[in-house]
Amino acid sequence: xxxxxxxxxxxxxxxxxxxxxxxxxxxxxxxxxxxxxxxxxxxxxxxxxxxxxxxxxxxxxxxxxxxxxxxxxxxxxxxxxxxxxxxxxxxxxxxxxxxxxxxxxxxxxxxxxxxxxxxxxxxxxxxxxxxxxxxxxxxxxxxxxxxxxxxxxxxxxxxxxxxxxxxxxxxxxxxxxxxxxxxxxxxxxxxxxxxxxxxxxxxxxxxxxxxxxxxxxxxxxxxxxxxxxxxxxxxxxxxxxxxxxxxxxxxxxxxxxxxxxxxxxxxxxx
Length: 270
Description:
The protein is an alpha+beta fold. The protein has a single domain, classed as Alpha-Beta Plaits. The chain is built from 8 helices and 12 strands. The strands form 4 sheets. The chain has a 5-stranded mixed beta sheet, with helices on one face. It has a 3-stranded antiparallel beta sheet with strand order 4-3-5, with no helix packed on it. Strand 6 and strand 7 form a beta hairpin.
């Protein structure tokens, strides 16, 4: 189940996080780890991770399930074309009407994601008259503030960057799979080509150059919004989104404190 937050509370929390980061010294080993990722991800040498704080928000009501984001992600990040590997994907939720004669307010929930949504979704086998509600939910790394994956990694290959990204250093990853098992959101996979763990990196090679992640760039409806809380723009879309929408996170009971926020999320989303 998801958890909702008050607008004032979320804005206050985000502001507090950013303010805290501005005053905290960054450990030398974290800086070194970020620089190692730069070497493999092609990020510019002048990028200072301490001067940014990236955030992704998703408006479920705007997602049409076209799959362009998942396809763009695969192409941009060289994700294996096999249908089982994704850095981001789309799930379709179909909630059936309650059975006649019961006191239930909704019926069975069906979830599917054929090829991660890349080829779109076929017509539902559930007759339209039996459907109470249907919608699409984009999924990706939740950028957990208390990330189980970083705690599970025995060699420190997975780490929290000072800019809010959760990254994997492929030069240090030994492919043990502990982080994959630890992720409660199913966002990680073992890359058969690199023999290392892999996941969404927010297109780190793009955002460190002032570009948007591929999934955000390609979305035709603006369902994905991405921004830098330390460097807001006039009428910043991230801050406006949090202010105007009822935002939620996935599986808040786990205490992972995700930094990916959703709006319009039904309680059945998991």
